[in-house]
Design a protein that fits this description.
This protein is α/β, with parallel strands linked by helices. The protein has helices spanning about 10, 35-40, 60-65, 80-90, 100-110, 175-180, 235-245, 320-325, 365-370, 430-435, and strands at about 20-25, 45-50, 70-75, 95, 115-120, 135, 140-145, 150-160, 165, 180-195, 210-215, 255-260, 275-280, 285, 315, 335, 340, 345-350, 350, 355, 370-375, 390, 405, 410-415, 420-425, 440-450.
């Protein structure tokens, strides 16, 4: 039994027009770039591509989009790819967006022969339209159907000629579920070894799920290079104030998830004397405590890079397991950005119809599964209009899910009666906060001043 093929071109030789293809990867982490390039060169058209996102503006699945080979994308996140976003807004491509955890679970169900399952993620949002709802233990759940495909393109670290695969760190992400859920799985690996070389306990995807393997050592790319210094968080005292205050919600022993953008900076300001574990949606848990300000920080947030600095206790797993942790209520705290929050604690943070569509990514799972949800954002939009409203006007990410709002002007708690003002920034007043808020505020009797 020898599943090794010569190269990527031979591996994709029979991919026809109209095929459905799962493509592994989280951003540029763990993408089968040789297979993508070979498919571009083959020219198969009318494809349905099933992938977390579409890489970046100039690499990854973008090549297939630019070549007009893709009819439909089933994804979770459009952000970081202007090509994908522009085509979606212009109606040039059909897009089906899924919450990230639902996306992973649909494939795991497809590979396991489970036709459907129920999840709390997405209830009360556009994701729930035309889906069956059932109540379990007093809580609503959506029915989601399994997801399968004709082909799966996955990237692995090592493989043998029987198709057994080992993934490296967070490159695992969605690959194991995709390998299970496809009729033909093609694995692009960095090294092919003889059967018996891989430790059987280390094999992540058994060969029964893989039909073709080939070796392709490609250069590893960095999706984003972030540098400290000019233009960083320290250059904006108001944003620094927000993340420092949000970080105070971290308690000793917490498992913490940080959303993209400003929330990722909160780990720099974790209170002294505590130890937390950061949960990353692409499949990583990393342990604190963290270095003092001014020292180099471990790269735990976008941790798909080979240059990641590991701390004791770090672990890696698939994105399906990652969202099982979230959905199962094992994450103590998530800190997310927002476009709008309202007095009921409803959250909108993933699209502005007709103008901007980023996709919900993992946010819908996080707000339905994390024990505590903290929102960090500027108090008003660029035009001065309130972002804290009586009712959200944008498509919801989650219903009645926000516990605390931290802005550059104030700290506001969401309580059953509405919104309670707890803290006010030192450069503003209670009245100014009221004027900048589009919903009534109850002022706490002992309202405090936010730390600078």
């Amino acid at each position: 039994m020898n599943k090794v093929v010569r190269d990527a071109a031979e591996a994709v030789r029979d991919v026809p027009d109209g095929a459905s293809i799962m493509i592994s990867g989280f951003g540029l982490c763990g993408i089968p770039e040789s297979l993508i390039a070979a498919l571009r060169d083959k020219g198969s058209r009318g494809l349905t591509v099933i992938s977390n996102n579409a890489g970046t503006n100039d690499f990854g699945i973008t090549f297939l989009l630019q070549n007009k080979q893709v009819r439909k994308m089933i994804s979770t996140y459009v952000g970081e790819n202007k090509v994908f976003e522009k085509m979606a807004l212009a109606g040039e491509i059909e897009v089906e967006l899924n919450p990230q955890g639902t996306f992973a679970e649909r494939m795991r169900a497809g590979g396991a022969g489970v036709p459907a399952f129920f999840t709390p993620t997405g209830y009360g949002t556009p994701v729930a339209e035309n889906k069956e709802v059932r109540w379990f233990d007093g809580r609503p759940y959506l029915m989601e159907t399994a997801l399968r495909a004709d082909y799966a393109f996955v990237k692995a670290w090592k493989g043998d000629r029987l198709g057994n695969l080992v993934f490296r760190r967070t490159t695992r992400n969605f690959a194991p579920m995709m390998a299970m859920a496809a009729r033909v799985t093609i694995a692009e690996v960095e090294e092919i070894v003889e059967p018996g070389t891989l430790d059987p306990d280390a094999v992540i995807t058994p060969g029964i799920f893989v039909q073709r393997v080939f070796a392709a050592r490609a250069a590893k790319r960095i999706e984003k290079l972030t540098l400290r210094g000019a233009g960083g968080i320290g250059a904006d005292p108001k944003r620094e104030r927000i993340v420092k205050r949000a970080a105070r919600e971290m308690k000793d022993g917490f498992y913490v998830n940080l959303g993209i953008g400003m929330p990722t900076l909160a780990s720099n300001y974790a209170p002294k004397g505590i130890s937390i574990v950061l949960h990353s949606e692409n499949g990583m848990l990393g342990v604190g405590p963290y270095p003092e300000k001014g020292q180099e920080d471990p790269d735990l947030i976008n941790a798909g890079k080979e240059t990641v600095t590991e701390l004791p206790g770090t672990s890696y797993f698939s994105s399906a397991d990652s969202f099982a942790m979230v959905r199962g209520g094992h994450v103590d705290l998530t800190i997310l950005g927002a476009l709008q929050v309202d007095r009921e604690g409803n959250l909108a943070n993933w699209m502005i119809p007709g103008k901007m569509v980023k996709g919900m990514g993992g946010a819908m799972d996080l707000v339905s599964g994390a024990k505590r949800v903290v929102v960090t954002m500027e108090h008003t939009a660029k035009d001065g209009t309130p972002k804290i409203l009586e009712h959200c006007t944008l498509p919801l990410t989650g219903r009645k899910c926000v516990d605390l709002i931290v802005t550059d002007m104030a700290v506001i708690e969401v309580v059953p009666e509405g919104l309670r003002l707890l803290e006010v920034a030192p450069d503003t007043t209670v009245e100014a906060v009221r004027q900048a808020t589009g919903a009534p505020l109850e002022v706490a009797a002992d309202v405090k001043t936010m730390e600078s």
